UniProtKB/TrEMBL annotation:
The gene is purK. This is N5-carboxyaminoimidazole ribonucleotide synthase. Belongs to the PurK/PurT family. Keywords: ATP-binding, Ligase, Nucleotide-binding, Purine biosynthesis. One of its GO terms (biological process) is 'de novo' IMP biosynthetic process. It is an enzyme of class 6 (ligase).
Amino acid sequence: MSFTKLKVGSTIGIIGGGQLGKMMAHSAQRMGFKVAVLDPDDTCPARFSAHHFIHAPYNDMEALIQLGGLSDAITYEFENISGDTLAALSEKFNVPQGFRTVVTLQNRLTEKNAIESSGAQVVPYMHVSNPDSLNRVVEHLGYPFILKTAFGGYDGKGQLVVNNAEQLTEAVDFIKSEVPCVAEQMIMLASEISITATAALDGSLVFFPVQENIHRHQILYKTTVTGTHQLQSSAIEEVKKIMKNIHFVGTFTVEFFIDQNNKLYVNEIAPRPHNSGHYSIEACDYSQFDTHILSVAGWTLPERITLHQPAVMYNLLGQDLEIMEDTFHEHPDWHVHVYGKEIRKNDRKMGHVTILNLFNDYETIYEERMR
Ligand code: ADP
Ligand code: MG
């Protein structure tokens, strides 16, 4: 469908009503758009930030057509929607991001192939189609390596670290239940960074500052943004290479590993706003959700993003919220976001906290509270 710039008062349809959908909705509504959300959970966070709510599975074509009927543009908060469904929607409705990029990136194998052929440095990897591939993996990648399911993994789910030959039986079981998968060399990490960017329909592009990320149990724990990361320009160069191969519209994030020799590897790409970009709501002049909405609305992107202050963001998982919630009232400097999920579970992302006045030691105070 041909694209026109959305007028104020138009409706943006969002597939997925989690925290990302909710924060997109907040940005959209501030700019005068209405929001329609589709989600299988009728208590999802975005439900109460939306003008219209459609209670249906993500791949329910009838419900998606209903969403399309309500919407002047459709976007999504997560990348695991079926490519065929998104392709069918793109024919009838305005889906500015299209469907091809999602299809490439939702499969770790095609994702890595695309990154590699762009000339960017990807983590050494191999395709694993059956347990017999393991010999080749050991030979080429050595121990330790990490098996990752090609489809649908997140927050470390669908992954197995294989440290030595004794763990090969476990690896065989994993492969039997998870094919297709990829095997990746385990990088001895010095640190992890990510860079969030937004691409407009006209090809213009804007970058957020480099985000330094600390994971615990493969889930993002903390993001620090100083605006002065020494690998900022190398990371941007890598993203630009990837962008020649993969067509982006909207906000996306590239995750990188940095090894002990300060070498940068691309880990993965999320074609949507990302957890490590949440600090931008308070710390930057545009949030990653603002620029996402600007781009799907066909509006012009800002020339640059300004970081007002260095920032730290901590995720609040179920168990963290339990510890922290009774102390929020004492800390006006903690910008508290609680997503409003009904069910609180260990390791489920329930909210996050962003802290800006780092010079006042608020970071230390927060971490001591968490202990
Ligand atoms: P997810 O889709 O769950 O985010 P990732 O591939 O980003 O999956 O893995 C989650 C985390 O696990 C990474 O951020 C990193 O901390 C660790 N990890 C994953 N792959 C590797 C690797 N090849 N070498 C070292 N650490 C890794
Ligand atoms: Mg990741």
